[in-house]
Amino acid sequence: MTTTHTPAAGEAAPSARKTTYREAMREALREALRTDERVFLMGEDVGRYGGCFGVSLGLLEEFGPERIRDAPLSESAFVGAGIGAALSGMRPIVEIMTVNFSLLALDQILNNAATLLHMSGGQLPVPIVIRMTTGAGRQLAAQHSHSLEGWYAHIPGLRVLAPATLTDARRMLAPALADPDPVLIFEHGTLYNVSGDLPADAGPVDLDHAAVRRAGTDVSLITYGGSLPKALAAADDLAAGGVSAEVVDLRTLRPLDDATVGGSVARTHRAVVVDEGWRTGSLAAEISARLTEQHFYDLDAPVERVCSAEVPIPYARRLEEAALPQVSTIVAAAHRVVGEPAPAPAGGTRRQPVGGRSG
Q1: What is the distance between the alpha carbons of residues 320 and 177, in angstroms, rounded to a whole number?
Q2: Which residue among 35, 36, 203, 342 is the one 20 to 30 A from 128 at the CA level?
Q3: Catalytic: 144?
Q4: Is 286 a catalytic residue?
């Protein structure tokens, strides 16, 4: 289990510098390219345009067109080329513009990258990293906004990552490149502009464990990626009303860290799973099932799930907001599992905190 460290009284806080999620990802790419000459970046508009979301801006000028390769508009072709490069000893980083477009390369990802090591009896590892933007909240409509991480987490042979913090954005890439298996990194589009302090001494990220981002005693809020800020905001609202929420960031969606998730629920005895994917057949459903299988007698209430509405993500802002998990819906779910009435809405998407607990 990974926890967030708070300096004790008199202890000097680690040095940190201001940055954004986008800049942290770019720094991770730059470090990988400088450290290993086998590493190259390939995808649509990653070179001269600097990436559709600006992550690779300036890397073409620094590393040249042999290592920052603009690809044609064919996900199947350039993901397949990346798989071939990985089989040949390179360490490709392939960028797919959005998760929706990754479906055009699903045959390459599922039938080739994920299976070759197994089907070759361990002779053909495919050490490729595939990055893609995921999630809604940016008014980009259905073909650019879905959260399909759960689909890929269903596939054996893949490692699936969802960096939600600046440190994870900066530090997940290096161990992903060192992994002999294909690694998919899902970057939520709403996180790119998030800014904060990145500890200068942050070491490599452990890809095998979830992180407890906030300790609590009454309910576990289990989430990942772009929903983490909402879960933390919901925990603040709940705390103001006397409900102590623990927030668990899954970080790695395949393989799931059952021990950290289960350990949290064993402490709080209640769980709310927040997942921007659709409820039916979702990652939230898998986590709920595992908690029921492994921690049935630890649970004091049924597991709640807060997921996106079962519709294509709308374009109109109010409809999009209504379709997605929000702070208010997370707070309401938490109140249901602790057996307290939810506070009345007070405008916007968040709810006002309630008074003290009733015992």
Answers
A1: 35
A2: 203
A3: yes
A4: no
Amino acid at 154: H
Considering the candidates 75, 187, 304, 320, report the single residue annotated as catalytic: 75
pLDDT at 165 over 60: yes
Residue 355, pLDDT above cutoff 50 = no
User: What whole-number distance in Å separates Cα of residue 26 and Cα of residue 173?
Assistant: 10
CA distances from 108 to 41, 75, 111, 173, 174 (A): 18, 9, 6, 21, 23
CA distances from 115 to 92, 124, 150, 182, 349 (A): 18, 9, 18, 10, 43
Catalytic residue among 144, 188, 269, 335: 144
| C-alpha closest to that of 114 among 1, 106, 5 | 106
> Hey, what amino acid is at 337?
V
- What's the CA gap between 72 and 32, in Å, rounded? 24
Which tens digits make up the pLDDT trace of 57-72?
Answer: 999 999 999 999 999 9
Q: What is the per-residue pLDDT across 222-249, written as a single tens digit (0 to 9) for each?
A: 999 999 999 999 999 999 999 999 999 9
* 328-342 pLDDT tens trace: 999 999 999 999 776
Q: Model's pTM, two decimal places?
A: 0.90
* Distant-in-sequence, close-in-space partners of 174: CB < 8 Å, separation ≥ 6: 28, 31, 32, 35, 204
